[in-house]
Amino acid sequence: MSKIRTIDDRQIGAVLTNGGLSVLLMAAPWDGNGIILRGIIESLAPAFRTVTFLEADYESCPRMARLFNLLAPPGILFVKDGEMVGRVSGPVSAGRINELIRAAIG
Amino acid sequence: MNTEIFKVFLLEDMALDMELNKRQVRKYRPEVLFAVARNRREFEEKLVDFQPDIVLSDYNLPDMNGLEALLYVREHLDGTPFVFITGVLNDEEKVADTILNGASGYLLKENLHNLPELLTAVVAKNAAVMRRREQDWERRKNNQLLLQKSIATLRTADFAGSGEVVAALRKIADNQS
Questions:
Q1: In chain A, domain spans
Q2: Residue-by-residue DSSP string for B52-103
Q3: Which of B6, B10, B145, B151 should be substituted to probe chain A, the one whose Cβ sees the most A Cβ atoms within 10 Å?
């Protein structure tokens, strides 16, 4: 079973009020970098049991794209207690994502 | 604003004051996304990427003052509303400076309970500016999306010079992002 839950624009509020760390991948099916990032996050997720991993389709979630100021996919957003604690866009390595998650957990 | 979620950038070095500010902002709008900075480095690193609807700033910070923060916002984010929340902005000259340099308002920390009211007024006053920013963002996003989709399509095509075309489009996309 996938460790990444799919959400859409209607569920942004729940992401913002979630007490712990949420890691949200915004990607598009036509973008190869996003597909690679999804695989990386899927493989990292089991190591972070307290983190909520989410994904959203970039084009069908315009509110989310605007909220996180993501002009094009892919992007990974780190939200904790209603605060954006990190944000990366474009291709990024597994090691860097791992580091960002650990830093965001604190 | 098209999105009803309010984006607030907080520049404040005191943890307790930061939490109090957040609490008052949530009274104004429960659905809010914050970005925070405690010093100049964090402020300059995060501000432009975040594209806030409003900046709330303390005046006295460890390595910068509020006026410097305001001028940075004016330089990089155009008309984004900027409000000082401070315990010491009681000097008439400082107040005049902040207003002349384009602050949208200021609030003493002892009157923090008035923040929701102030936010209502500032957002209403800046509605036109915020609408223009939304439209500009939408235009930039659509251009960026067209470019990225074209690049993705071209990557699967096989014709002489396709690599050069992809490289050129990639450069344009990077320059516009």
A1: 5-105
A2: -SEEEE-SB-SS-BHHHHHHHHHHHHTT--EEEEES----HHHHHHHHHTT-
A3: B145
**Which residue type, as a one-letter code, is found at position A85?**
V
Indicate yes or no: CB of B141 within 8 angstroms of CB of A31: no
Q: Taking CB atoms and an 8 Å cutoff, what residues of chain A touch B34? A: 82-84
Topology (CATH) of B6-125: Rossmann fold (3.40.50)
Q: Model pTM?
A: 0.88
- The pair of three-digit structure tokens given for residue A76, joined into one six-digit string: 């990974």
The B residues from 63 to 122 touching A (CB cutoff 8 Å) are none
Domain A5-105 top-level CATH class: alpha beta
pLDDT digits (tens, 9 = 90+) for B30-48: 999 999 999 999 999 999 9
ipTM score here? Answer: 0.89
User: Could you give the CA distance from residue A64 to residue A87 in angstroms, rounded to a whole number?
Assistant: 13
Nearest chain A CA: its distance from B49 CA (Å): 7
Residues 6+ apart with CB under 8 A from A14: A7
